[in-house]
Amino acid sequence: MASDKEMNATYAFGLGARRGVAANDIVELVRRVAQAHKVDLSEARLYALESKAQEAGVHEAARELGLELVFLPLAALRARKATAATHSPRVQAMFGVGSVAEAAALVGAGPNSRLVAPRVTTPVAACALAKRGEENNS
Q1: DSSP string, 90-108
Q2: Which of 6, 48, 87, 104 has CB 3.0 to 4.6 Å from 14, enough for a Cys bridge?
Q3: Cα 46 to Cα 61: distance, rounded to the nearest angstrom
Q4: Alpha helices in the chain (DSSP H)
């Protein structure tokens, strides 16, 4: 389980990805979401489901983006599923959450976090953005 310190990023990018995803697919997607919401990557972390810990593309993308990469247990994502904005029946059937990316972002940004950007999807990955709860006044 990630520590409390690792789950309070000012901005948390949640990642969902297919097996074998290429780093450049993740990098392009995260940069697109960051640019659209004017997020400085130095204030962010990347969060993914712990089952992706062996995915070379996920690790390589985090290095290229300069983001700390934190893997989360599925139970933590399930605990935040009610606050996700979107719902994929396929993802729900596979993981018990409607959006892995949104739930991971919300967990990563802490208990009072809010979703800034619902998931943006490509054929191989999904990315969502959440902001730490203490920052809600901006």
Answers
A1: HHHHHHSSS-HHHHHHHHH
A2: 104
A3: 10
A4: 23-36, 56-65, 74-79, 89-95, 100-108
Model pLDDT, residue 133: 86
Neighbours of 19 (CB within 10 A): 10
Q: What gap in Å lies between CA 89 and CA 111, rounded to an integer?
A: 25
114-121 and 125-131 beta bridge pairing: antiparallel
Residues 6 or more apart from 22 whose CB is under 8 A from it?
57, 124
- Please give the Cα distance from 77 to 90 (Å, whole number): 16
**Tokens found for residue 46:** 């990347």
Looking at the DSSP bridge assignments, the partners of residue 130 are 12, 115
